[in-house]
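Posted in: Structural Biology > Protein-Ligand Complexes

Title: Requesting predicted complex, 1-O-phosphono-alpha-D-glucopyranose in pocket

I'd be grateful if someone could produce the 3D structure tokens for the following input. Sequence and ligand are given below.
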Amino acid sequence: MKRKVTKAVFPVAGLGTRFLPATKSVPKEIMTLVDKPLIQYAIDEARAAGITEFIFVTSRGKSALEDYFDNAPELEAELQRKGKTDLMNVLETTNMDSGAIAYIRQHKPMGLGHAVWCARRLVGDEPFAVILPDDVIAAEKPCLAQMVEAYEETGGCMVAAMRVPEEKASAYGILDAASDGIERKIPVKGMVEKPPLGEAPSNLAVIGRYILTPDVMNTLHRGKVGAGGEVQLTDAIAAEIMEGRPVHGYRFEGERFDCGSKAGFLQATVSFALSRSDLRDELAHFLNEIVPVARAAE
Ligand code: G1P
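-- Reply #1 --
Done. Output follows.
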């Protein structure tokens, strides 16, 4: 029987230089879409998929993340005194049970594969999920929950996948897919991290959700450097295929926002705000007014 996926690794050690100066003192993962930090979206998605142990791979300057998941007794007491139960409920989603969350440091920025490897002792000998909080996915059924369900049939490793325009392929891990059909679960023949323009084996890109077997940690242990001079997670998963173990791409249902980029972050902000009944009307009205003005000024 396949073991249940109960642990998730959140690589959050990056410096977030694309969002300077904000990220000089605020971890990128604390930046908010409407009123919820990026990391909270990732945690909510993990919980919805049955994850009960949360492993953060952090670095210097990320202590705000630890505080975020801690209890806030003064704030809670104040909200209680004022009878603000709705806000107390919101706060509760940020609290973690004792022992449910662990922080481990990546001492040098050596790549995503290296960050995941830093969590090896906490992961142990069981399958685990990886969530990259930069990739925010709006979906009726959260993306990782879709994948866990699919994984129950396939086993092995699974990566979220999405078609991207050919000229964007060099920004992603790209799948060499055994089939190019319309099915959601796609057996993978090979994977390449950030292929040079024109050399991508397909336009199916890896998006930041993974279910991995502990075997991947053994490959990462070798510390082999790949694209961009970094230890790549993509390469370690590709090694699984070479060993004859199954790897699937999962074409998830939902809309993905690249919140690692400013344009993506803004699009997510607008989209999430428009889906909120308390903000929709006012924001839509504002957009209707300014878009024609911006167009006319072009
Ligand atoms: C990482 C992975 C890449 C994946 C991407 C998804 O790249 O290395 O394979 O396609 O996330 O967002 P990064 O965006 O950190 O360069």
